[in-house]
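User: Can you predict the 3D structure of diguanylate cyclase? Sequence below.
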Amino acid sequence: MLVDINQFKRINAQWGHRVGDKVLVSIVDIIQQSIRPDDILARLEGEVFGLLFTELNSAQAKIIAERMRKNVELLTGFSNRYDVPEQMTISIGTVFSTGDTRNISLVMTEADKALREAKSEGGNKVIIHHI
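Assistant: Sure. Here are the predicted structure tokens for diguanylate cyclase:
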């Protein structure tokens, strides 16, 4: 699963890197509250994060992704406890493998395609691809 913080470059440009860092920390906290203890969250680059889940079916993955998306939108809204200056949203691209997919390059390529699709449809969306 790939997660991209929508409008993050604009936030950094408009509010500065200190606020950008606060946004990053806030979103990470919200995502960590939204996933299971054994799930793995890693910052891949800039405003893009990767999540690795095991023992999930497609429906469960969709539920977790939607929970993350909704929580970010809700918990960064007006007068939020994170003190970020505006409501934030995320776009999520997920790849679900029904088999024993060991080709990490294929998995990452499909997750990236799903993420780009979510962003091209306006962001604040979850897209799942199956391989």
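The mean pLDDT is 94. The longest helix spans residues 17-34.
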